[in-house]
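Practice problem: predict the structure.
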Amino acid sequence: MIIRIYVWVPVSTGLTSNSHDTIELHTTEWSSVLAMQVIGVRLGPRLDVTSGSRPVTLTEVEVVVNTASSGLGVSPCRLYPRPAVRSPHRGRRAAGLLAVLGVVGVLLAVVGPGVGVAASFVPISGSGSTWSSNAVDQWRRNVATNYGMTVNFAPNGSTSGRNDFRAGQVDFADSDIPYGLTDGGVLDPNPTRAFGYMPIVAGGTAFMYNLKIGNNRVSNLRLSGDTITKIFTQQITKWDDPAIKADNPGLLLPGRAIVPVVYSNGSGASAQFTMWMADQYGPQWDAYCHKNGRNLTPCGFTSFYPQGPGMEAKAQSQGVAGFVAQASSEGSITYVEYSYARNAGFPVAKVLNKANYYVEPKAGSVAVALLKAQLHPDLTQDLAQVYINGDPRTYPLSSYSYMIVPKDTTQNFSTDKGVTLSEFAAYFLCEGQQQADTLGYSPLPINLVQAGVDQINQIPGSTKKLDRNNLAHCNNPTVSPDGGNKVAKDAPQPDPCDLKGTTQCTTGTAGAQNSTPTSPGSPAANNTAAGATDPAAAAAAGATTDPAAAAAAGGAGTTDPAAAAAGATTDPTTGATTDSTTAADGTTAAGAEGTTAGTDGTQAGTGQDGATVIDPDTGQVISRGGTTTAKKAAGTTTTAGTTTGPGATAVPVSVDADNRPQMLLTLFAVILLLALVLGPPLVAHRIRSRDGPHP
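Answer:
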């Protein structure tokens, strides 16, 4: 951002005029004071004053600086009033006062809009990917808080985002796939406006599920790529299918029906998932497409998943994740970005990679996988080698999401909007990537940050804040001294119990960090978190044949007569013990995870044994045990209640902006206020003391 600051300085400061009446600074002192690149200054009118017995000539100087090098949002600071000179003494006083004000102006410019001088950012709008929207929404909040920047974003899906950008309805779009591809036999044309692709964040397409053994949630499910494909092409329809049991030797899986949940809208997540199936399991995917009305060979990828009988279809990532997270959706599974499962407190399946390890889509595993991504000249991605990456740490379904940015000022885009868009993009390429892991994503590697800088600098009105050849102040967490990807280098090797075979890790994944002990009698029984083989521990795991222990723990397959007499029944499919008592108002007594009453949108949920209560619309956690009342109105959720019980699920991601900059700016504000109040009298007193009595 180019700004101008007006100050009065002595002419004898080492400044020289050039033919354009511009002053070239001997820049060391000025650049140091301003903490930003000084482009130059321009001469204004001169003023002759006397300092002591020496005549001094002041000149009004317009200082032109580029704030990009400071990393701060800076606004113009015009301290322009020319002093009226009626006497040398008054001139000296005015010069002293203006000198103080000049210093204040410089400090105000340096500390930026946080102290009294608001940055002038034109609001911008975008739409698109729900896959990346959890990250985008956090970044939008950060820049609004820290820099007063308004970035509106509608997470309506990648397809809608590309359509909105093509129609000129938004200033930018987020999409998980580019234009120009044939989707289901239909070409998605490029916009007529000039545009570019800029990677914004990496992540893994995860498989979030809702499954229990008895009354205990499964949190350590493992699935091979072949099994996943067969589930979503309806070749596997029960959770106790031999293929799933082979992936999970430590679990006594129930014979419950599998409910695949797909997107009802055009989705980048659907495109990424079907692209992987088409590449790795083409014949199975083609057969499913043909069976469900898509007579294309090869069927290829699609943003619109062909829904088969028995599947559920919900709109956007919030919809599919919210459906799976409902207590009534036990047996369901969906594909969604990892962050959604983590936020909802639900697990994801570990996926088998080419090194025969089952891996969770954490930041390191995604970063390792994407080392094999091939980039086209326009920065779009070829993931064929990612799918077959032989590194044991690899998560196979890893990918990037893109921001589509304008390169001209057609369709209501202006250079003022370009200032905002380029500043926002520079923020999330650097500072914003520090939050990627916490938010459930993986930060972009340095080569993609450099490529992103090239795209930012082509946005009309770009402040060109970043230099691809000097990213020392970018603060991207992937940068290592040798230029490699630090996140990938630091990614740990998988646990031995995640190797395909007869053992199985017990630790939970994503938002469900509670362990799922492997079951007695299973091949992996020796690999439990606590090595539990006694009846009580087995009952807690939901897999026991001891009636007393099962009744005490509410475990699976109980035949305790006392439990039966109390109205308890055993589901022959799931093995779960439930209470048949149901109140007239629809409230289920024992065995229920929550209680729902009323029709005004108020949900009163009582978590049992620390169970998590989920908002079915958003998939967000309402409570973690205890009693919670949540009322939804006008798109907001108000939660009040107490949390009890030993529920072991992750807290939803909420990253507050670092308040240290605000503290620093507050300190500067105090200093500046003192300078404004005390500075002029002190300077005037100093001048009077030096010059003696006035005539």
